[in-house]
Specification:
The protein is mostly beta strands and about 170 residues long. It has a domain of about 110 residues: Lipocalin. It is built from 1 helix and 12 strands; from the N terminus they run H-E-E-E-E-E-E-E-E-E-E-E-E.
Length: about 170
């Protein structure tokens, strides 16, 4: 009986040693992964902070927006009046923050611009003002299309607008 116990104990010790050795030899899936721009590796893949995308978080999300979009703005005033206006919207880089950009020619006025902040790889929020005019809204880009939805206040009146545009190459 004692030899049987010794053999069983030896066998169990070998199994425990093999299991510990096997699990300690497994490599970390993040060992060879380099994430840029404060991205973090999770199970071998980079998780990017807002404003960045790509396999290694190497792409600025706003880059797909830095161009001109020709489109149509439709606004509904508080009097239920619909107005349609075709014009271009331009996006320019802001150097302070990689998540930000400037949107120019809001409401077809070159003096009107808004500061946009990326909130996801394909969407942003924006706000701007010019004299007695203020506006705030959201934007989304997909492929080469831009959608804006925003609220405008001018003096004592306000209205809501949507813009749809296609990017120029």
């Amino acid at each position: 009986m004692p030899i049987r116990n010794v053999l069983l104990t030896t066998f169990l010790a070998f199994i425990v040693f093999a299991a510990i050795s096997y699990t300690s030899c497994k490599s970390d899936p993040c060992d060879n992964v380099v994430c840029m721009n404060l991205g973090a590796c999770d199970n071998g893949a980079c998780v990017c902070p807002v404003g960045f995308e790509g396999v290694h978080c190497e792409i600025l999300s706003r880059e797909k927006l830095i161009k001109t979009f020709n489109g149509i703005d439709s606004c509904i005033s508080s009097w239920d009046t619909l107005s349609l206006l075709a014009y271009p919207i331009h996006f320019r880089v802001m150097l302070d923050d990689p998540r930000e950009m400037r949107m120019l020619n809001v409401l077809n006025d070159l003096d009107d611009s808004a500061v946009c902040t990326m909130v996801a790889t394909d969407s942003f929020i924006f706000q701007g003002s010019n004299n007695s005019l203020t506006y705030v809204g959201t934007g989304k880009v997909s492929n080469d299309s831009l959608w804006l939805k925003y609220h405008v206040e001018r003096d004592t009146s306000s209205y809501d607008c949507t813009f749809f545009g296609q990017g120029l190459r």
